[in-house]
Design brief:
alpha/beta, 8-stranded parallel barrel, 6-stranded antiparallel β-sheet, about 30% strand, disordered N terminus
């Protein structure tokens, strides 16, 4: 049996890519005193990257970040944010300005806000995400720089603020680059902009930066008393010893006082919950407990579920019992049409579709989704696979690329480590085999495990050999993962109409997830089952594939590709794709295709 024990999450620092400056990601932003900066922002499209400086004079005095204004009638300043159009933040620019539908490059965004100093308090500026490289300026001074399109970042801007009106200017650049994660080629829309919430966070000089509470063991069956063990850890923003911390879980009658150590931490304190009627989180009973963490009169409130996830041979065990993951893959795209999803409403609609399909599990592909999505899935009883965009061919030999990928793993885990529904951290998707790739991903897997060993590690692998209806999975990464997962497109990219004949050889004593299968169909297009793009073709493909999957030894779940049609610049077939990947079981407008009912019926039998 392989059981996950939490031990080192909160001692890991989150480095913000600012010259000479670091900033650690703050946890549970939703429970803190915040001022939203969402809403209309002025924007300027900077196709030729002129916003840094006046190239004719080689000086920075008229850089866009300074929000310069003419002081004399003869002054020449060739931009004005106050006269520029506005777009909504959070939001992508591709769907808000038709001129920017395909745009990849720099856009500058500006927002003014009022601020007033309070003695003994600090102000953090928090971004849920911005795609992809972000430079942040407050009142003309650089406040931060972040690389990565799907993870949160924050910075202390107190010393850059002034009484009254302040100006925030953000340069966002979504150009694809070889050394990025993801790299140049990927099969989803490269939505640019500040795509998630922006806010100011009010904190004390010394504050609780992050904390975790996880169930690490269930009662022994031989024991006469019911004893659940919860591990509690906490980290302050600075190494202050002797700070009193109060942990309270009222429904479990937990009230415990702690004192921080010399590093400003509480590390893996084991709480025994004896003879309590603790309800464990599961898809059937997604119970969450009110958890209160207090210091110096300020309390952070969270809703945390308690559960265990582990493997035993080829079985996957939730709360000590075998479970089959009835899943679906989902992109972070609005449920009706295109555009980046960024609200609880978006999340609820998409997840409701998954529930109607019969799912108890969702793969949030191919990057960390917004926090609303994860929390809504937890509330609705849906387990989650969360991954970073190490997608296809990454620059495996590039040290900077690895550092970026490792930072994205760190950020993903730091934000969501208290969410009971996340059971799998995934480090990659469909990566071609090589020694350099094995080293890169092996190190990532070890890093993820060192941060959080209460969850399982996986990645979406590829089939390495196939002949005469026999398929063999062989991947050196198998020694690093807890669950063996792989993508296969029999019936679409190969062996059309022969899926049911296929047999699989998976030489690992670990649970198996088929992390992708499927094929495309345009909603409303009908024809013979061997006619591409028809609903009947996709319907038959699902029938053949589910029959094949039933024969896989150790199959612990599937996440077919994909819940709904989503935008992709790779999909150019006029009249059929029209820049959409059509593998959805729902259309881009939320209409069910015939294959939906095949998968729904199969899941009912599981």
């Amino acid at each position: 049996m392989k059981k996950k024990i939490f031990f080192a999450l909160l001692v890991m620092a989150c480095t913000l890519g600012v010259e000479g400056k670091t900033c650690t990601q703050i946890g549970n932003v939703m429970a803190r005193k915040t001022t939203s900066l969402n809403g209309p922002w002025n924007y300027i499209v900077d196709v030729q990257e002129e916003g840094y400086y006046d190239y004719r004079m080689n000086v920075t005095r008229w850089g866009f970040f300074q929000n310069a204004k003419p002081q004399r009638p003869e002054d020449l300043i060739e931009y004005d944010f106050d006269k520029a159009p506005t777009m909504m933040v959070p939001g992508d620019w591709n769907t808000q300005d038709e001129r920017l539908f395909f745009y990849e490059g720099t856009v500058w965004l500006k927002r003014s806000f009022d601020w007033h100093q309070t003695a003994g308090r600090r102000t953090l500026l928090y971004f849920g995400a911005a795609n992809y490289e972000t430079h942040v300026y407050v009142n003309g001074q650089q406040a931060g720089h972040h690389v990565g399109g799907f993870t949160p970042f924050n910075m202390d801007v107190t010393d850059l603020l002034k009484e009254g009106e302040n100006v925030l200017i953000v340069k966002v650049d979504n150009k694809r680059r070889t050394e990025n994660v993801p790299t140049l080629i990927f099969d989803w829309w490269n939505y640019g902009g500040i795509t998630r919430d922006v806010c100011l966070i009010d904190v004390a000089e010394t504050y609780i930066e992050n904390y975790s509470a996880n169930l690490v063991s269930l009662p022994l069956t031989s024991s006469k008393k019911k004893e659940n063990k919860i591990s509690f850890s906490l980290k302050l923003n600075k190494p202050v010893a002797g700070q009193e911390i109060m942990l309270s879980i009222p429904e479990l009658k937990v009230k415990k006082k702690f004192v921080t150590d010399a590093e400003g931490q509480i590390v893996n304190y084991q709480l025994s919950i004896v003879n309590s009627k603790m309800t464990l989180w599961s898809p059937e009973t997604p119970k969450r407990y009110r958890v209160e963490v207090s210091m110096n009169g300020e309390t952070l409130v969270d809703s945390i579920g308690f559960r265990t996830i582990e493997t035993r041979g080829k079985q996957l065990l939730l709360n000590g019992k075998p479970i089959f993951l009835k899943g679906i893959s989902i992109h972070e795209e609005k449920p009706n049409g295109g555009g980046r999803a960024n609200s609880t409403s978006d999340a609820h609609t998409l997840l409701s579709w998954a529930k109607e399909l019969g799912c108890n599990f969702v793969r949030l592909a191919h990057y960390p989704h917004n926090e609303y999505m994860v929390r809504e899935a937890e509330r609705m009883g849906l387990m989650v696979w969360s991954e970073i965009p190490c997608y296809w061919t990454i620059a495996w030999k590039n040290a900077q690329t690895y550092a970026n990928a490792q930072q994205q793993v760190t950020d993903m885990i730091l934000r969501d480590h208290n969410r009971a529904n996340i059971i799998i951290w995934s480090i990659a998707n469909e990566t071609p085999h090589s020694a350099e790739r094995d080293k890169f991903l092996g190190n990532l897997a070890q890093h993820a495990r060192s941060m959080d060993s209460t969850r399982l590690i996986s990645m979406a692998m590829e089939v390495t050999s196939a002949s005469n209806y026999k398929n063999r999975l062989q991947d050196n990464m198998s020694k690093y993962v807890d669950v063996v997962s792989f993508n296969q497109y029999i019936g679409w990219y190969r062996d059309v109409n022969d899926a049911a004949k296929m047999v699989w050889e998976i030489p690992y004593d670990k649970p198996v997830i088929v992390s992708e299968f499927g094929g495309g169909a345009k909603y409303g297009l009908h024809g013979a089952k061997n006619q591409r793009w028809t609903e009947e073709f996709q319907e038959n493909l699902y029938k053949e594939n589910t029959a094949m999957l039933d024969k896989i030894d150790g199959l612990a779940g599937t996440t077919p590709w994909i819940l709904k049609d989503f935008r992709s610049p790779r999909r150019v077939l006029n009249g059929i794709q029209d820049y959409y990947n059509r593998k959805g079981l729902y259309s881009d407008k939320g209409e069910k295709k015939k294959a939906f009912y095949v998968l729904q019926a199969w899941y009912k039998g599981k």
